């Protein structure tokens, strides 16, 4: 029997068309990628997005939610992080949910409501956050909380009408990255409250819908993004290389932690240069600094020192520290390996800050001066 009318076949072809278009445009000159290395980087992020879409959105139903890991040490996108593990799942204000899990040693845990941009689309805003200050954790690190439904005094997060997903954040401050396998067992579970009948088996329509969500996921995080220079960045983003803006909360910026403060700037270094950053960790729950490429993918934190948290930082007697971005090991403390890249992004996170945050200061110096 011919499948020429199958919705799933049409959706599969549309996904292939999306990948081809993104490869030609997003990984090409239209987005400022002209060298073979730049093109390869663009194709890599598209491959990671395809994997992320298939893992997180192909089988995705708010009536039967499942927490799935958003990024890993090999699947990088959306500003991933060596000190954190992230999960998400589809939810809806039409349902109420019970969530269980354990902290597994994490020093910060939160659940964030993403609103708008359903069916694989990029969320439009952050619509609520519940962190571990606002839900009960027992002596073994286990917790239970509720999403949507009737209001509760604690352990509850409202789901507005345009809710589409829940993002979870779990942060550690330790020498070894928790995102490198074997990763901590968070025992995350989510169930719909009330009667839950089995879903019908997959059919042509549901497979087509899943493939459509994957295509939308890839497109919304590539071709639908503003081209370089086409939009005004958030207040926490600097467009001047090697100069950081004051750290500020992200507001309702989608996929951001509303209870954090951020600062980001591009770095630009010559082959014989290094960037010396002077900073001070503020009073906060946890904090780190990470190196990203232009696509907001972390550098190789499995094998290289490309991020610092407070437990990994060697401080000066006055409590400040110097982090050094360099293409090779300068033989000083707090080296951040640029992987030999002349350009990248430096991103600071400060979770639940309770006081002022000093703006990091950076200076470009000759690499040789560090060793002398």
Return the CATH topology of the largest domain.
Jelly Rolls
Under CATH at level 1, the class of the largest domain stands as Mainly Beta
Report the span from N to C terminus.
Answer: 76 Å
Find the structural class using helix and strand composition: alpha+beta
Shape: globular
Q: Which architecture name of the largest domain does CATH use?
A: Sandwich
Major sheet description: 5 strands, antiparallel
The domain count comes to 3
Strand residue content: 25-35%
What is the number of E strands? Answer: 17
Mean pLDDT: 95
SSE arrangement, N to C: HHEEEEEEEEEHEEEEEEEEH
| Helix content bin | 10-25%
Could you explain how this protein is built, in words?
- This protein has 372 residues and is an alpha+beta fold.
- The protein has three domains: 1-61 and 199-225, no CATH class; 62-196, Jelly Rolls; 260-371, Sandwich (Jelly Rolls), CATH 2.60.120.1600.
- The protein is 17% helix and 27% strand.
- Helix 1 (7-25) packs parallel to helix 3 (204-220) and helix 2 (36-57) packs antiparallel against helix 3.
- It is globular.
- The mean pLDDT is 95.
């Amino acid at each position: 029997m011919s499948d020429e009318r199958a919705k799933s076949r049409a959706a599969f072809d549309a996904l292939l068309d999306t990948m081809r278009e993104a490869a030609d445009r997003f990984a090409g000159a239209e987005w400022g990628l002209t060298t073979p290395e730049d093109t390869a980087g663009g194709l890599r992020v598209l491959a990671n997005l395809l994997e992320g879409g298939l893992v997180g959105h192909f089988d995705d139903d708010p009536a039967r939610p499942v927490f799935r890991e958003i990024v890993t040490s090999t699947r990088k996108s959306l500003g991933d992080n060596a000190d954190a593990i992230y999960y998400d799942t589809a939810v809806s204000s039409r349902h109420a949910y019970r969530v269980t899990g354990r902290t597994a040693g994490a020093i910060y845990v939160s659940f964030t409501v993403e609103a708008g941009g359903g069916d694989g689309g990029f969320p439009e805003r952050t619509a609520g956050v519940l962190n571990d200050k606002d839900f009960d954790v027992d002596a073994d690190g286990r917790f239970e909380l509720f999403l949507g439904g009737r209001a509760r005094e604690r352990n509850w997060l409202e789901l507005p009408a345009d809710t589409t997903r829940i993002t979870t954040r779990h942060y550690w401050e330790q020498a070894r990255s928790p995102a490198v396998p074997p990763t901590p067992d968070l025992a995350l579970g989510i169930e719909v409250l009330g009667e839950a009948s089995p879903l019908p088996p997959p059919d042509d329509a549901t497979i087509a819908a899943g493939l459509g969500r994957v295509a939308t996921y890839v497109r919304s995080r590539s071709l639908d993004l503003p081209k370089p220079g086409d939009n005004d960045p958030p207040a926490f983003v600097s467009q001047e290389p090697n100069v950081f803006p004051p750290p500020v909360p992200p507001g309702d910026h989608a996929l951001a932690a509303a209870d954090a403060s951020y600062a980001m700037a591009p770095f630009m270094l010559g082959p014989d240069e290094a960037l010396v950053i002077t900073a001070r960790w503020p009073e906060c729950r946890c904090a780190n600094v990470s190196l990203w490429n232009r696509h907001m993918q972390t550098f190789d934190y499995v094998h290289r020192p490309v991020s610092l948290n407070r437990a990994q930082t060697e401080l000066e007697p006055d409590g400040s520290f110097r982090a050094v971005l360099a293409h090779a090991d300068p033989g000083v403390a707090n080296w951040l390996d640029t992987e030999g890249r002349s350009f990248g992004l430096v991103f600071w996170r400060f979770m639940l800050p309770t006081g002022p945050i000093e703006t990091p200061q950076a200076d470009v110096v000759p690499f040789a001066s560090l060793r002398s």
